[in-house]
Amino acid sequence: MRQTGVNRVAKLFFGIFMVFVYLGMAVLMAINYFDWSTSGPWQVVRWLFAAVFAAYGLYRGYREIKGEHTYGMRRYDEPDEDVYTTYSKSQEPKIDNDDEKK
After folding, report:
1. How far apart (Å, rounded) are the C-alpha atoms in residues 34 and 68?
2. How far is it, in rounded angstroms, from Cα 31 to Cα 40?
3. Least enclosed by CB within 10 Å: which of 23, 55, 70, 100?
4. Ramachandran angles phi, psi of 73, nearest 5°
5. How many CB atoms lie within 10 A of CB 50?
6. Does residue 16 belong to any structural domain of this protein?
7. More confident residue, 28 or 5
8. How far apart are CA 16 and CA 76, in angstroms?
9. pLDDT digit string (tens) for 54-65?
10. Is the pLDDT assigned to residue 4 strictly greater than 90?
């Protein structure tokens, strides 16, 4: 079943909201909002978390702009076929071609 307009808008809003969450967490980690210890190892871990949150937030924002957010459902631009993005090749139905072997 193809996504309806309301469903599509809700997913778009959630995707944009999550971009702000990830980028916000990156900023909070960078300014040491959670008051982690300033000793060497913890400071490295804090900056690593800040970098990962920022990178994933930017990546997720890029996917929102490009329209590549599927969330386990069909893509918006894919034709009306019974093909889902979550199925793997191993789960496709097998066709018995015994007639061709003879």
Report:
1. 33
2. 16
3. 100
4. -120, -175
5. 18
6. yes
7. 28
8. 17
9. 999 999 999 998
10. no
Per the structure block, which two tokens stand in for 20?
């702000």
The answer to the question of residue 9 being in a domain is yes
Alpha carbon distance 2, 12 (integer Å): 15
Instruction: Indicate the residue type of 82.
Output: D
pLDDT at 5 exceeding the cut of 80 = no
Task: Specify if 47 maps to a domain.
Answer: yes
CA distance 89 to 2: 22
What's the domain count of the chain? 1
Query: Which secondary-structure segment (H or E) carries 4?
Result: none
Domain residue limits at 9: 1-69
| 101: in domain | no
Cα–Cα distance between 34 and 31 in angstroms, integer? 9
Question: CA-to-CA distance for 3 and 74, rounded, in angstroms?
Answer: 8
pLDDT per position as a tens digit, 24-39: 999 999 999 988 887 8
In terms of residues, how long is the chain?
102
- Using an 8 Å Cβ cutoff, are 54 and 26 in contact? yes
